[in-house]
Design brief:
single chain, alpha+beta, 434 Repressor (Amino-terminal Domain), Umud Fragment, subunit A, 13 helices, about 35% helix, globular
Length: about 350
């Protein structure tokens, strides 16, 4: 019995999706054709939009897309990935191997200069750095894993010498910088900040609410400048949709709170939604640094273009296509990664810190 054709609505953007999937998996047209059970020319005409796929081919490509998204999302999940098994069922072994490569760091070429090989069982320098960082922070492996957005087993493997993904390396570097900055703050004798003290005196309502204790849940993004106590405007998500430049935040806010920041244009946002569960919850405050560029692994808040609905998203930042595309990933597996062009984003700012307010 012949299969019913795929509806035109589902085929919108399918050629680009097919090409993007093949590039993401780093496979050739013949390889993808072999998985789909079609000829190489079939894949070529699909990617050029000259031929609609049959329903079985369309369903298999959708299955590959879902599995690839789950594999990439697993790198940022605090618990081991258990949701991808269903998506992998029925896929060819070669396709499963390609999907597994998505979560493996690319091997870097060995340096031209000969170096002394470590003895068997000796930990590499990065493993020792991670162990030392955890000791300085005074946290367990599960706690460090939660800060990094990975599983406890992942931290154990890193400390035993396994390679870490680029987002995890960036977060480790941020935590190390945060520890160094704290140590410097304890040893340095700061000069009196008359501007900050006068601002705090003139506007007592910007201090933390009585009975509320802030707890920082992520490291600060690096920004040049001396931290100053500043009354930051606090925006809601709806108010942020109308924001076009950081200077407008002061006029769009309904409250102010005091933060120590080094970005003169910094402002705060009150988070809502479940896209970043389990690490971030409704009501948390995020401090944004508009004058900083986001880097892979950073938490960011992005305002999408009106053509995409103008949504404001709190996500994890990375790039694709050699930096030509921006990928916004969620910690919640219910939200797949979103790939965007720079033109589809009105603004995107790194989150310097988040504050979770808890009743004492």
């Amino acid at each position: 019995m012949p299969h019913s054709p795929v509806s035109e609505e589902k085929l919108v953007g399918f050629p680009a999706r097919c090409l993007s999937l093949r590039q993401k998996l780093r496979v050739s047209k013949p390889e993808l054709a072999h998985w789909l059970g079609v000829g190489r020319s079939y894949v070529t005409v699909m990617e050029k939009g000259r031929q609609a796929p049959s329903r079985p081919v369309f369903q298999l490509i959708e299955k590959l897309e879902a599995a690839a998204n789950l594999k990439q999302l697993a790198m940022h999940m605090p618990q081991p990935d258990t949701t991808a098994a269903t998506e992998l069922a029925g896929l060819p072994p070669a396709a499963i191997e390609a999907l597994d490569r998505l979560v493996q760091p690319e091997e870097k070429p060995a340096p031209a200069k000969a170096v002394e090989q470590p003895v068997k069982g000796e930990k590499n320098a990065f493993a020792l750095r991670v162990a030392a960082l955890r000791e300085k922070m005074g946290v367990t492996r599960p706690k460090l894993a939660q800060r990094l957005g990975v599983s406890r087993q992942y931290v154990t493997k890193i400390e035993n010498g396994a390679h870490a993904s680029l987002p995890v390396i960036k977060l480790i570097e941020k935590l190390e910088a945060e520890i160094q900055n704290r140590a410097a703050d304890h040893t340095a004798v700061p000069a009196p900040d008359h501007a900050a003290s006068s601002a705090a005196t003139a506007a007592p309502t910007v201090a933390d609410p009585v009975g509320v204790a802030p707890s920082f849940s992520m490291p600060a993004a690096p920004v040049a400048g001396t931290p100053r106590l500043t009354a930051l405007p606090v925006l809601t998500i709806p108010a942020a949709r109308d924001l076009t430049v950081p200077a407008q935040a002061a006029f769009a806010s309904t409250e102010h709170l005091a933060f120590s920041v080094s970005d003169p244009d910094a402002f705060a946002m009150r988070l809502s939604g479940d896209a970043m569960l389990p690490q971030h919850h409704d009501g948390e405050l995020a401090v944004l640094y508009p004058n900083s560029m986001p880097h892979t692994g950073d938490r960011v808040i992005a305002r999408l273009s009106d053509s995409l609905g103008g949504d404001v998203l709190f996500r994890i930042y990375s790039t694709a296509d050699h930096g030509h595309s921006i990928v916004l990933s969620s910690l919640n597996p219910l939200y797949p990664p979103v790939t965007l062009s720079p033109e589809e984003i009105v603004w995107i700012y790194p989150v310097a810190s988040t504050v979770r307010q808890m009743l004492l």
